[in-house]
Amino acid sequence: MIAHPDTVVAWIEAVVRAHAGRPALIHDGVTWSYRDLWSRAEDAARRLLAGGLRPGDTVGLLGANEPAYIVNYLGIARAGGTAVPVNDRLDGATVRILLASVDATRVFVGRVDAAVRDELAETFHLLPMDAGDPVQRRGRLPVVRPGTPAAIMLTSGSTGRPKGVVHTQSTMLHATQQLTSAFPFRSDDRSVVFLPLYACIPEQVLPVLCTGGALEILPRFDIERVAEACTRATTFDAVPTILSRLIEHAPREKLARLRWVLFASEHMPVTLLHRWWDELPGVETHQLYGMTEVLPLSAAPHPLLRREPSTIGRAFPTTRLSVDDGGELIGASPAQMVGYYKDEVATKAALGPDGAMRTGDLGRIDERGLVFLTGRSKDIIISGGINIAPAEIEAVAARHPSVERAVVVGVPSERWGETPVVVAVPRPGRALTADDLLSHCRSLLSSYKRPTGAGLIDALPTTGIGKTAKDTVRKMIVDGKINVVRV
């Protein structure tokens, strides 16, 4: 009897056996086959074991996108270790705190600032991201089991005490299987990777590798390079802010070569979806909703989005989604974290009585099982004691024909405690003033939801994966760095 693969390692190994000669990684004109990828991952694993790695040890990964990043991620797993990807935009002191919080003593370091490297060298054993020295292959690698920790994803490190979200081989594999069952991943896919690898491995890299597709790796998001890569590709993974920039600035004929795109991580304006469909009718759009702690929660494939563009889809068959009395979405899944690393208090606080995860998102589920987001609990603006969901105002702002992208944040108000302010990026070549934006929003909203200020900005600040950084926008308004007109 053939054993069914029950870990990410075993699943990819099965793909390697079946498709050893197929392209797996493509970077700067160089192609690595699945055989190459798996062989290099074994070398990485043996180097770690020769250096004293023990089962479950945490190993950091820090650097820009490159094939060696994926090789070492898989090498850590094959050695029985736990990969800890870290945001390469952080300063050295923050990276050191994050890695120390999960007891890492080793870190693979790629292209980073010299100051960051120097800071880490004082505390950690630094490993080169792209090591090419030969390795002795004696004996078998450790057996990796479903319950073996696979990765720790770091969250909240910039705003509070860092938390390490622990996922096992089993939870990661289940997430991958959920994604490949709901979205059209195929073995002939060529997926462009421009989101940072520290963030996109679970939702892009692993599903592509587990279905035998190829990954073309770009160092970062760049409109011209992404558009050119799309002429050779079938798909990519993005966030709505990036889709907005591509549809506004990239040549349509290059994007039109794609078969489908997947997006997640932030609210998708319905107007942006309609524009994508109008201008790129042959490119399917698929939406994923999830969180670091419960990787996928719901899926909205292209046909569903065309019928209901404001939904985030239905829960996966193996996922349970509900809404509590306060309007917060609660989810449970076999793809759920096993907990926060060595933090039982935070783990218990994040879970409901039945062990389901509190998402922090507000929403509703209709009689068809369709899920709709109404906002983030932490983003809710409390103005005069009334809760206002920024997403409702953002949706109205996005309907203005001269608005490319809009965001709404709450700012301090002596009268109301907090009041909503809308900030927008004008579409190139379109006339837009802050007064026009403010009048547009106020004319279409109930009195208590109307923004009391509006401002324009050339580009919204973003996080490392391209999501709008609302905290930064709020600070820019408070510091006077965005000119705001008020009623």
Give the arrangement of secondary structure elements.
Elements lengths: L7 H11 L4 E5 L2 E4 H17 L7 E5 L4 H12 L3 E4 L6 H10 L4 E4 L4 H8 L3 E4 L20 E7 L7 E6 H14 L7 E4 L3 H14 L3 E4 L5 H8 L4 E4 L1 H10 L2 H4 L4 E4 L6 H10 L4 E6 L8 E3 L1 H6 L6 E2 L4 E4 L4 E5 L6 E2 L3 H7 L6 E9 L5 E6 L4 E3 L2 E3 L1 H9 L4 E11 L3 E10 L7 H11 L8 E4 L13 H9 L5 E3 L1
Parallel strand pairs: 1-10, 3-4, 3-5, 5-6, 9-10, 9-11, 11-12, 12-13, 24-25
Antiparallel strand pairs: 1-2, 7-8, 8-18, 13-14, 14-15, 16-17, 17-19, 19-20, 21-22, 23-24, 25-26
Helix pairs in contact: 2-3, 4-5, 6-7, 9-11
* Amount of beta strand: 25-35%
Q: Which architecture name of the largest domain does CATH use?
A: 3-Layer(aba) Sandwich
- What is the number of helical segments per DSSP (H or I, 4+ residues)? 16
Question: Level of helix content?
Answer: 25-40%
Structural class label: alpha/beta
Q: What is the level 1 CATH name of the largest domain?
A: Alpha Beta
Uncertain parts? none
Number of domains: 3
Protein name: Fatty-acyl-CoA synthase
Domain AMP-dependent synthetase/ligase: 13-341
Pfam family, one: AMP-binding_C
Domain AMP-binding enzyme C-terminal: 392-467
